[in-house]
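Our consortium's second objective concerns turning raw sequence data into structural hypotheses that experimental partners can test. To show how far this objective has progressed, the report includes one record in full. It was chosen at random from the queue rather than selected for favorable results. The single chain below, 335 residues long, was entered without modification.
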Amino acid sequence: MGNALRFLYIHCCKPTITEDTGSLRPHGVSTTHVEVSALAHDLFQFDITSQVPEGLSKHVVSSKKAQANWYRKLLEAWREAKPPPKTPEEASRFVIQTLKRHQKADVEGLLAFYGLPLPDTLLQPSVSAPTSLPQGVKFELQTLPVDVKAVADGDTITVYVSTTDPRESSNVPREVQLAAAQRSKARAAKNYAKADALHKKITDSGYRVLNHQNQEILAQKYRIRLRGIDAPESSMPYGKEAKQELAKLVQGKCLRVLAYGDDRYGRCVGDIYCNGKFVQEIMLKKGLAWHYSAYDQRVELATWEKEARAKRVGLWASSNPEKPWEWRKNKREGR
């Protein structure tokens, strides 16, 4: 079962050589910010199998029965954490607080197993620590590589986020967890009909098992509406070009999405960054989208649209291009 569930141990948790020492942490992960994902993976596995990770006993003094008790406590606390730990320091404090009544040698051994900071190395958190996210951002997503088929048009895209991401890990429905584990076993037994039926159950719940770098990854689906722009609809002039440009920008890339909330269609409205580039900026400057000023008053977006108008690029090559929101209204009213 442990091998069948390793699909959760995605590219960000894959054993790698550390740059400074050329060696691995005891758990088989490097020092490059994968510690929290490793812990999330093992809690997920414990929830399904009730088995603690192999090799843990080499780092702690208590029995496997005691170890299982720790993981039950950690799993329950992880589910209740809002949000769950995101950094190694947060994860270390989480473990220390949850297991504060247990032996010091066990707690420190568990931290060392995951490569998390030990108690005497932790700095006291600042109460007034500034956030790095812009005002209004509800949460941030780091996506898996985008499939070109996931681009619906010039301002809408479907992305997937690994469930080992700290934000996602505590929210995966148990029926999805079980279906993913059962699917992995069915594929190992070459029972592909059963595996396909289980995958349909997973996708119907808003998740999908994706293959990335020869690893199977359970991921949650998000439909993203690019915030602040409105691209021509597919059947409008320049609608095809807008879709092609967005696809060219994001195909095969991992995206950073700053989510501001949902629209009335259930899509996540957000700003998208690809390799550090602001995708909405590119779409506006190439004349492949309008600034959606009815919902977004950012001056920079209006400026980028004006620049494209002045250069008569993209849809601005037309003297009077139809606005997509007016086109949709006319379609609804049967004009």
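The partners drew two points from this record. The longest helix spans residues 64-80. The beta strands are 139-142, 151-153, 156-162, 207-212, 215-226, 229-230, 255-262, 268-274, 277-278, 290-291. Both points have been shared with the crystallography group to help prioritize constructs.
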